[in-house]
Amino acid sequence: MEKPCSLLVHFDKGSAAMANEIKADLEGSDGPAKADAMRRAISLLLNGETLPQLFITIVRYVLPSEDHTVQKLLLLYLEIIDRRDPAGRALPEMILICQNLRNNLQSPNEYIRGVTLRFLCRLSEPEVLEPLVPSVLTNLEHRHQFIRRHAVSAVSAIYRLPHGDQLIPDAPELVERMLASEQDASARRNAFLMLCSCAQERAVSFLLSNADRVAEWPDLLQMAVLDLIRKVCRSQNRANKGRYITIITSLLSATSTAVVYECAGALVSLSSAPTAVRAAANTYCQLLSSQSDNNVKLILLDRLNELRTSHRDVMVGVVMDVLRALASPNLDVKRKVLDLVLDLLTPRNVEEVVLYLKKEVVKTQAGDLEKGGEYRQMLVQTIHACAVEYPEVAGSVVHLLMDFLGDTNVAAAVDVVLFVREIIETNPKLRVSMIQRLTDTFYQIRASRVCSTALWILGEYSLSLSEVESAIATIKQCLGDLPFYTVSDEGETADSAKPAQPVVNSVTVSSRRPVVLADGTYATQSAATEVISTPSVAPGSLASTLNLRSLILSGDFNLSAVVACTLTKLVLRLEEVQPSKVESNKACTEALLIMTSILQLGQSSYLPHPIDNDSYDRIVQCVRLLCNRGDDVKKIWLHSCRQSFAKMLAEKQFRETEEVKAKAQISHAQPDDLIDFYHLKSRKGMSQLELEDEVHDDLKAATGGFTKDADDANKLNRILQLTGFSDPVYAEAFVTVHHYDIVLDVTVINRTKETLQNLCLELATMGDLKLVDRPQNYTLAPESSKQIRANIKVSSTETGVIFGNIVYETSNVMERSVVVLNDIHIDIMDYISPATCADVTFRNMWAEFEWENKVAVNTVIQDEKEFLDHIIKSTNMKCLTPPSALDGECGFLAANLYAKSVFGEDALVNISIEKQLDGKLSGYIRIRSKTQGIALSLGDKITLKQKGGS
Question: What is the secondary structure of 282-330 as a DSSP string?
Answer without folding.
Answer: HHHHHHHHH---HHHHHHHHHHHHHHHHH-HHHHGGGHHHHHGGGGSS-
